[in-house]
Amino acid sequence: MPETAIAVIPDPGRTTEGLRDTGYSFETSVADLIDNSIAADATVVDVRVQLDFRGEVRLSIADNGCGMDRDELVQAMTYGSPQRPDPASLGKFGLGLKTASTAWCRRLSVISRPPDGPATMATWDLDFVAEQSEWLLQVSDEPDQEAAEHLNQTAPERAGTVVLWTRVDRLLRNYSNPTGSHAKRAFKSRCETLGQHLAMTFQRFLDPKDQRAPNIRIRLNGAPLSPWDPFLKGLSELVADATKEVELENGTRAQFTIRAYIIPRREEFPDDEQADAARISPDMQGIYIYREQRLIHAGTWLGMFRKEPHSNLLRIEFSFDHHLDSALQLDIRKSQIVLDDTLLRWLREQFLTAPRREADRRYRKGRASDISRKGKKGGHQESNRAIANKESQVGGPKVSVTNPATGEVEVTNRQGTVTLKLPVGSAEAPGQVHVQPVDDITDGLLFEPAIIEMHKAVRINTNHPYYHKVYIPNFNDSVTVQGLDSLLWGLCVAELSATSDDTIELFGDVRYEVSRILRKLVEGLPDPPDSDLE
Q1: How far is CA 155 from the centre of its chain?
Q2: Residue among 478, 476, 432 nearest 458 (CA)
């Protein structure tokens, strides 16, 4: 029997409901709609997200782009609308307008006005489509009055378009009372997050000094958005820069550009305001992917590495144009790419190796400074007070300093009298005479005995991994820190109590071995979060 072809029309209601769950976040949905405004050569985009007294959300995005007549509007509202003539367009698959919108609302309307004609409104009402069980697009020559006014304010006496969401059922769906204070706070937070996302996504379009993209103005609820540059040009350091060619399936070659930046540590910024604006956190480290100058994905390592604090200062720019769309498997949301194994290997083993090492070095150098500062600020106060209260009961050898300049100390214990060379110093903080954190100790030791203002003491190396991974996470638990400090102080007093001329070198070797073993044992422990240093 010969093969035949038959038309199979999907059920309208089930299809439109299924397409609501394509994975759009609220922020990526709005950004997708702004892509269409940019593709229409708009220079102004005005976004309004409103919550009325009934708890109903209404979103409208107006632009002063080229607009559409009735036929063009119907075509644009068609699921899988024809391919745009410009392959570089930010609107790519003919689905974004519909899927991005109905991911959050049940009624999508678009009002558009061409340069030489009246405005027309076309609406997808998901409930109406399901009831009629037909792909029925509602078209009217009498647009929503409020949306029409929004268009007139954004594009007075010229072409333009408004995208309107009503019956927004998913933005506040976790709140049983959409008019309550919790829902209102959540709504405000969503708007703030949206503003940050748009400022980052369209940074190159918003920055009039950036010549890589056409300039546009975007307003959110009346406030103009300022560009946010993740690479902090002028403050960061460019540590690697490469342009690489990729051979496509059709035999042609296309290029992408990749650059690695190391941003300053927080204390290196000129002021707190700029440090806060830099958003230094694990979420913001990684690769920032740009297609046609528009950010499509932020802060990812593409599965190559885990996000860890020591990479917080490293941000990578990855820029390409539409020629690489198929090779990089750009998805429907234009928010994700897939690199082939060869390219991933090149990134992981060649390009990123040196920048990751340098970012790690700068992080750890600054981290050691933070740790030392935290310890000296008062991390061991309780230990010093506790030991001071018990020092006379503990007893121990008699110690006298014979030469403070050279550190010569005379120790008298059960073995007799022996002359040692120990660190001799004064307290760096009030009462810090038994446990003293220091930036470094010879040979990388974790601890060593010392004499501080004639008291038997222990100096602890804040640059040792044990201090970094065991002490720091427990600074808010004074009992644990006292236990650690008491152990090390007790070991030092015991060493002075048992040292003789024959065992001086032996005790030094023991401290070296203990420090080495502890260094290895804590290798697998996680780095403490930054909050532990605050």
Answers
A1: 36
A2: 432
Q: Is 154 helix (H, G, I), strand (E, B) or coil?
A: helix
**pLDDT at res. 416:** 92
Distance, C-alpha 261 to centroid of its chain:
15
CA 386, 392, 396, 397 dihedral sign is positive
Among residues 385, 501, 491, which one has the least CA distance to residue 447? 491
Q: Give the tokens for residue 229.
A: 């540059």
Mind giving me the DSSP string for 178-246? TTSHHHHHHHHHHHHHHHHHHHHHTHHHH-TT-TTS---EEEETTEEPPP--TT-TTTSEEEEEEEEEE
Q: Which residues contact 530 (CB under 8 A, 6 or more apart)?
A: 281, 309, 312
pLDDT number for residue 89: 47
> Hey, what are 447's tokens?
């601890």
**Inter-CA distances, 49 with 23, 61, 317, 361, 380, Å:** 21, 9, 31, 44, 51
Distance separating alpha carbons of residues 37 and 65, to the nearest angstrom: 6
Residue 390's Cβ-count burial label (10 Å; 0-12, 13-18, 19+) is exposed
DSSP string, 32-64: HHHHHHHHTT-SEEEEEEEE-TTS-EEEEEEE-
CA-wise closest residue to 490 among 386, 401, 412, 411:
386
- Given its phi and psi angles, is residue 233 left (phi above 0), alpha (psi -120 to 50 degrees) or beta? beta
**Dihedral angle at the C-alpha atoms of 271, 275, 276, 278, nearest 10 degrees?**
140
Q: How far from chain centre, in Å, is Cα 149?
A: 38
Residues in the chain predicted with pLDDT less than 70, given as ranges, are: 1, 81-95, 248-252, 327, 329-336, 366-377, 529-534
Half-sphere exposure of 201 (CA within 13 A, CB side): 22
CA distances from 395 to 387, 459, 490 (A): 11, 19, 11
- The backbone torsions φ and ψ at residue 445, rounded to the nearest 5 degrees and listed phi first, read -65, 150
The whole-number pLDDT of residue 99 equals: 93
Which domains does the chain possess?
A: 12-224 (3.30.565.10), 237-351 (no CATH), 378-533 (no CATH)
Q: Is the pTM of this model over 0.90?
A: no
Question: Using an 8 Å Cβ cutoff, are 312 and 281 in contact?
Answer: yes
Q: How is the chain split among helix, strand and coil, in percent rounded to 5?
A: 40, 25, 40
